[in-house]
Amino acid sequence: MDQKRRREADQLFRGAIGRLINSVLAHGRVASGGPLDNPSKGSSVDLDSDPTVTFAAPAPPLGFQPGAILAQRYRIVHLLGRGGMGEVYRADDLVLGQAVALKFLPPAATAEASALSRFRNEVRTARQISHPNICRVYDIGEAEGLTYLSMEYVDGEDLASLLRRIGKLPQDKALEVARQICAGLAAAHDKGVIHRDLKPANVMLDGKGSVRITDFGLAGIAAHIRDVRSGTPAYMSPEQIAGKEVTPRSDIYALGIVLHELLTGKRPPLDPGDADLGPEIAPVVQRCLEPNPQRRPESVLQVSAALPGGDPLAAALARGETPAPEVVANAGPIEGLRPSVAAACLAVAILGLGLLCVLRQRHDLINQIPMENSSEVLAAKAREIARSFGYTEKPVDTLFAWQYDTDYLRYASEQKNTLARDARLYAPYPPAIYFWSRQSPHYPINSDVTYEQYSFNRDTLEPGMQAVVLDSEGRLLEFQARPPAVARSEHRTELFDWDKLFAAAGLDVAAFKAVQPQFTPGSPFDAQAAWTGSAEGENLRVEAAAYEGRPVSFRVLEPWTRPSEPTPVSFGSFSTPTFVLGVLVLPAVAGLLAWRNARTGRGDRRGAFRVAGFLFLVSLLAFLAATHHVPTVTEFVILFSALRYALAFAALGWVLYMGFEPQLRRRDPESLISWNRLLAGRLRDPMVGGHLLGGVAFGVLAFSATDAFAPLRFVSFAAPKVAYSFFSLWCGDLIAATAGGLSFALLLHLISTVIRPRWLRVPVFVLVATLLLSPGYGVLSFATVARPTVVFLILGVTLARFGVLATVAVAYVAFVTQDFPLTTNWSAWYARPALFGMATLVGLALFGFVTTLRSRSLSSHHSGRG
Question: Cα angle vertex 567, ends 563, 571, to 5°?
Fold first, then answer.
């Protein structure tokens, strides 16, 4: 075929594609067989306005007679219409026993192999969409040497013809039609398909008044669209006319024009704020017709929700359907908290934090112990002590941290006399919290790359390392050393002067007597000694050992010390049932639910992956910030461990979210509205801000109220860790709050499947959570039981009343106030991280306050730019 013939065929094909799918059904009263006497009418490419396209001459009539059987399947009933781009027949499908429409294209339109291939691709695109408001495409085939398209037969009239007859639709009918158009477009956009030629001629009303969007001839997958300018210029968006891009917002622009025609009978003027639309509808249309696509609504569902009386969430629930995450996000109020309520919440958050600092100064153990020396001062003291013992090598690597003496805290908590117990805990000695420093003449080779590296472990010392344990005043509690792998050049046989150890420990050697040693040091030794005595009213035992004239082991053992027992497995500040429920049971149940939901396609995959991505990033930062980095190959181990750690938390978040989200979205979608808006990136949404502010206020109020009646707090176990990386600790709180909030939602969902009365679910939630999730450390008393009960009651009410996002905010307050040692003593070494923790809470509250009071019109809200 010569070049000219190719161009003619291509032009003819472009016209054919313009009416590809149900074009005849968009051309008039097809049920009555109205003729297609105007080939350009209703075409997907407005040929009258496109100088690059010319009309082909009408093809000769095909002449299929009623009763004719085609492809051994279809029986022709009658001709529906004929035009320059082919003929459409009403036919009966003899195999399925239903009426169909058969569109036959002229032979010239499919003569080229490339044209036919493109034709099939367009059909393939249209078949991806299945929705009651989309005219269905069945198949493509050949009969009598002609290519045909089988599609749904719609007995009705297109909107263009209807509007020409009656002028405009009544508002209630126009809104009903508009919502159905939005629902059909949403189904197409959900599959990534953009119509690109939405106009009244391509919208059918069947005999029941239901909408069918037709003519997806120009439709395409957004990522694969190349011919951007294809479409009807009168309905094309500015960016489409300019050839820049085609996105779902391009269809929304055309939707705005269609809405204007439905309600006024005419296309919008230059100023789309037509008075005929009314004050409730005009802003919606105006937002759809924004020249800047970023200022248009994000989705057609937002347009539907913005129209008067629009409530797609209620409609979906009424139909017994599970609403889509986008529907949930666009439901609910568009305003945030009232100014008075927002101001009250902000005041509660700020004043409550101040009160909480005062209460923690009185009740928190770390604030009662004299701790005048900073970490740096004690690290220098530890180095000086090691040097005085003969370890004069200059350290290359140093690591230090604070740590609670869990043996002593356990012992003190068992004392019945609380006044005597508190007095002992407040005393500098015996220390409830101690400082340890590890120094080495070389970079560690086999050091642990987890959080536990910041916990003192004498068994992980490598040759050449020394570890010094001090109380808060710098007195020696323990010294451990490992001789270097290569012996010193001169072999020293003199005995070490044990008095130096007693002097460093602040003990009077005269008050102790020598006894037989009971414990074997972990290092080689050639001399060993032990003593018993008393100091500051405590009976003590001292064990020491030396090698080649230098000490390798020294320990001050109190009656409560358990030196021979292995360190028990620690689950932080929570009990073993908490570990079993939170780490084993809930993830296992969530995993089964997530597998089922993923298999049936009911889960919010995009939301789940966003949660997983957030947890992955924050977990990776937390691990890397907490790890002691050294310039050796160990860094590769650290990196792989960090990735493994982050992937584990990401998988946990994905499983938790996929486990409960679909069921919660079906049963109680209101609890996910603000959460889904946040996942959609609408950070400035007033409802998101209101729930964040309310969650912070509720959390601060809960802990302020319970701390006012709380006993001495033993559970600030994370407080010493702020000395090395409070950024890592903060990242950990973000992880715990997100996973905790999702876990609470999963727990309440599981309870709701068993407990039918809604009023009974929260009490059962509080009971289960209090029994299984209460802190396991401390004295069992009314206060220690009442405190978690009140906290879980607030969590349960927040979850049931306000939803997941507010619950995550409450959980975040819980973890931050738990982990960061709040204080009013700003000279303490932990004051800076305490201030950081408070600043994050105040900052979140201020962000929520400003966001929830952000003035938003109806149209700007439904643009999705939250």
Answer: 150
Task: Using CA atoms of 798, 803, 807, 810 in order, give the dihedral in degrees to the nearest 10.
Answer: -60
DSSP string, 485-530: SSPPSS---PPP-THHHHHHHT--GGGEEEE------SS--SEEEE
Among 146-160, 383-397, 681-695, the minimum mean pLDDT is found in 146-160
Asked if omega into 551 is within 30° of 0 (cis), the reply is: no
Q: Which helix (H) or strand (E) holds 345?
A: helix 339-363
Q: How confident is the model at residue 93 (pLDDT cuts 50, 70, 90)?
A: very high
Question: Is 864 or 772 the better-scoring residue by pLDDT?
Answer: 772
What are the pLDDT digits (tens) for 585-639? 767 888 888 888 888 888 899 999 999 999 999 999 988 888 888 888 778 888 8
Alpha carbon distance 92, 203 (integer Å): 23
* Helix segments in 680-830, DSSP class H: 686-707, 722-754, 758-773, 782-801, 804-819
pLDDT, position 678: 94
- Contact indicator for 781, 755 with CB cutoff of 8 Å: no
Measure the CA–CA gap between 764 and 443, rounded to whole angstroms.
Answer: 53
Tokens of 123: 């059909």
d(CA 132, CA 183) in angstroms, rounded, equals 9
Question: Measured between alpha carbons, how far is residue 734 from residues 72, 113, 672 in Å?
Answer: 65, 57, 19
Size of the chain in residues: 866
Strand 74-83 and strand 86-93: pairing? Answer: antiparallel
What is the identity of the amino acid at 396? Answer: V
The C-alpha angle 372, 376, 379, rounded to 5 degrees, equals: 105
Confidence of residue 50 (pLDDT cuts 50, 70, 90): very low
How far is the CA of 438 from the CAs of 394, 470, 556, in angstroms? 13, 12, 18
Tens of pLDDT, residues 75-87: 999 887 775 556 8
Set 197, 405, 471, 707: catalytic member: 197
Residue 828, Cβ neighbours under 10 Å: how many? 17
Instruction: Provide the greatest CA pair distance for the chain.
Output: 123
CA 858 from chain center: how many Å? 27
Orientation angle between helical segments 782-801 and 722-754, nearest 10 degrees: 70
Q: Is 865 exposed, middle or buried (0-12, 13-18, 19+ CB in 10 A)?
A: middle
DSSP per-residue codes, 650-671: HHHHHHHHHHHHHHHHHH-GGG
Residue 747, judged by CB atoms within 10 A of its CB (0-12, 13-18, 19+), counts as: buried
State yes or no: is 508 an active-site residue.
no
| pLDDT greater than 90 at residue 240 | no
Euclidean distance between CA atoms 207 and 157, whole angstroms: 8
The helix (H) or strand (E) run that includes residue 614 is helix 605-626
Cβ-Cβ contacts under 8 Å for 312 (sequence gap 6 or more): 179, 183, 301, 304, 305, 323, 327, 330, 331
- The distance of Cα 247 from the centroid of its chain, to the nearest Å, equals 25
Q: Which residue has the higher pLDDT, 382 or 460?
A: 382
Give the pLDDT confidence score for residue 452 in this predicted structure: 52
The mean of the pLDDT values for the chain is 78
* Three-state DSSP state, 548: coil
Give the residue from 213, 134, 209, 186 showing the smallest Cα distance to 316. 186
Alpha-carbon distance of 494 to 819, in angstroms, equals 48
Strands 193-194 and 211-213: unpaired
- Residue 750: C-alpha distances to residues 527, 736, 762, 769 (Å): 62, 20, 12, 13
Q: Is the pLDDT of residue 414 over 80?
A: no
Of the candidates 353, 338, 358, 357, the one whose C-alpha atom is nearest the C-alpha of residue 701 is 353
Predicted local confidence at residue 59, as pLDDT: 53
Tokens representing residue 636 in the block: 């590769």
